[in-house]
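Human:
Care to share another protein and its fold?

Assistant:
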Amino acid sequence: MAESLRGNPHPTPKLGPLLIDEAYIAAIEKLVEYASQASTDLQSQHGLEVSFDDANTGVKALDQIIERVRARNWPADSSPLKWHANALGAVLACMMLQRGNSITAFRSKDNFTNFSVYIPNTKVEYFPFHKIQKCLSSTDTGTVAAYYAEFDGDM
């Protein structure tokens, strides 16, 4: 699972074809709806403001939640860990989409695991769900804040 790819002239086709037209619209609507609900649920469960409208506050909250989830040592295939991976990934994805000047790459309208944000100017593709999954499974993968800062710098 790559958290970013560099140098490709367009989003990678290795993870499947990109959605277009109605399927694309359905996917982005579902992602935003899910991220909004996830933000509310994460705030309720963890007592932290989880907003994708304020990247500074949002990435700090995501990193704090990731630390808490890792401390619980849930198995990788457990429902709570999977839910957190999806919820945190959706919030991070929507934070990234707030920046604009990127290509939103959906490969499925109801599974966002391989969703990416591609930046044409710098030819870098970011996979927010992959990054969250790595952060949840290991402390050696850096932070969401550092990942977002790298993304922000590529914009």
Summary: The two ends are 22 Å apart (CA to CA). The CA atoms of residues 59 and 145 lie 5 Å apart.
